[in-house]
Amino acid sequence: MDSNSKRIAKNSLFLYVRMAVLMLISIFTSRVLLEKLGVDDFGIYNVVGGVAVLFAFFSSSLTNASQRFLTIELGRNDLKKANVFFNQHLIVYLLIAGGIFLLAETVGLWFVYNKLVIPPDRLFAAVCVYHFTVISLCLTLLGIVFNSCIIAHEAMDVFSFLGIFQGVAKLGVVYLLTISLTDKLIAYGFLMLVVTLLVQVFYMLYCFKHYEECKLRWVWNKTVLKETSTLVGWNMIGTAVYAINDSGVNILMNLFFGPVVNAARALSGQVSGAVGSFSSNFYISVQPPLTKAYASGDYNYMMKLFYNSSKYSFYFLWIICLPVMFSINELLSIWLTEVPEYVGVFTIWILLYSMVTTLNNPIWTISLAVGKLKWYILIGSGVFLMVFPISYAVLKLGYSPVSVFMVMVAVRSVYLIVVLRIISSYIPLTYRGYMNGVVYPILKSTVLSTAVAAPLYYVMPATVIGTFSYCFLVALATIVCIGMVGVTAGERTVVRNFLKNKLCKK
Fold it and tell me: What pTM was computed for the model?
C-alpha cells in the first residue's frame, strides 16, 4: 500500500472514530430532546433553524472555495500564496457575515413572524431560537477558513477531536436542559450557540499556532478577489439552489402539514445523518489528495482515486443503509419512546437520496479543483432546482409528504447523469469508464446483498436482540458480497496483504 493510500486509510480511521462517537451522541440526544421539548417544540426548532440556514448558503460556497484554493497552494508548497488566500478570504468572510446578519434579521425575521405556522404561545421562544441560530451561523462563517486549513493539511485527528468535543458538549447541553427551570426551547437554542462559539475559537487558536499560512495581515489583492469571486459566484448559485431545496422543502411541509411533520423529517434526518457519516467521513479524507493530484498534474492517479472514492463511499453507506432500511420500524421503536408518524418511511427515502448524493461528491470535488463551474452550475442547478416547484405541485394536488422525498430522489438521479456529462469535458472521463469502474460493481453488490438481507429479515425475531443481530449479520454479509463482486481482484489482493502485514506485526 503506497503512502497516499496509507494516509487516506489513517485519516479515514480518525474520522470513523469521530463518526461513531457523534452517532451515539446524536441518537441519544435526539431522543431526550424529543421527550423534553415535545413534538411541537422539536419541530419548531428545526423549521426555524431551516429559515436561518436559508440565508447561509454563502457559507457552503465559501467553504468549497477556501478548501480548493488552500489545498492547491499547499499541494504546490506555496505557503506565501496560501497566506494571501487565507487573509483575503477571512476579510471577505467578515463582510459577508455582516451582510447575512442584516438580511436574516430583517427579511428572515419578517418571514418567521408572518409566514411560518407556529402556535401563538410559542412565537416568542421561536424568535429567540431564530436569533441564536443567526448568530451561530455568522460565527460558523468566520470559522470556515480555519476549518478549511485543517482539512487542507489533512489533520483529520484534530478535525475528529473537535467534532467529538462538539458532540460531548451537545450531550452536556441536553443534561442542562433536563434540569433547566427556564423555557427549554430558549435554553437549548442559547446553549447550542455557546457550543458553536467554543468550537470556532478552538479552530482559530489551533490554526494560529500550527500553520504558517494562518498569520494575520491585511490583504486586499484584486487578482485573488477576482479569482476567488468567480469560483464563489458560481458556487453560490449552486448552494443557493441546494438551500432552497432543503430548507424550502422543510418550510413547504410546515405550511402544508404543520410542525409535527417537521419533527418527523428532523428525526429521520438524524438517522440518515448518522448513517451517512460513514460515507462522508471517507469522502472528507479523500478530498485533499484528489485536489492535490489535479494541482500536480497527476491525472492517472486522480482518475483512479475518483473511481475508487465514488465506489467505496457508496459501499460504506450501503453497509449500514441496507440493514437499517429493512429494520427501520424496529430500530425506531427501540430508539424513541413515541415514534411520530412518517419517521420510518421518511428515513428510508432520505437514505436512498443520500446514496445517490454520495456518488456526486467526488464529481463536485473535481469540478472545484478544475475551477470551471459555469456550465456545471447553470445546467446542473437548473435540473436540481426542479425539486422545489415539483414538490409544491404534488403537495398542492393533495399527495402525502412522502411524495416530496420521491421527487428528491428522482431529480437527484437525473442531476447525477447530467453533471457526469458536463465534467467529462474537463477530465478523461467517459460514461463507459464510469459504468465499468463505479456503476456495475455497485449494482452487483447491492443486488446480491439485498438477496441475502430480504429472506433473513423474515427469519430473525422482532426483539431487541433479534433486531441488532439482524443488523450485524446483514452488515457482515454485505461486506462479504462487496468483497466477492464489488471490487477487483487486485483490490482484494491489496486488502488481503495489508491485513496479513498488520496481523504479522502483532
Answer: 0.68
Whole-angstrom Cα distance, residue 395 to residue 407?
A: 11
Handedness of CA 33, 28, 243, 53 (dihedral sign): positive
Whether 215 maps to a domain, the answer reads: yes
- Provide the domain limits for residue 280: 3-500
Q: What is the Cα–Cα distance from 278 to 240, expressed in whole angstroms?
A: 26
Distance separating alpha carbons of residues 15 and 156, to the nearest angstrom = 7
Q: How many domains does the chain have?
A: 1
Name the least confident of 91-100, 453-462, 478-487: 91-100
Residue 505 lies inside a defined structural domain of this protein? no
What is the rounded (10 degree) CA torsion for 275, 148, 18, 483? Answer: 60
- The answer to the question of residue 313 being in a domain is yes
E strand or H helix at 137: helix 123-142
Per residue in 319-353, pLDDT (tens digit) is 888 998 999 888 888 877 677 778 888 889 988 98
Does residue 506 lie in a domain region? Answer: no
Look-up: residue for cell 429479515?
A: 457
Could you give the 3-state DSSP secondary structure of residue 296? coil
CA atoms of 11 and 347, how far apart (whole Å) = 29
Residue pair 291/72 in contact by the 8 Å Cβ criterion: yes
222-257 helix and 79-103 helix, angle to the nearest 10 degrees: 40
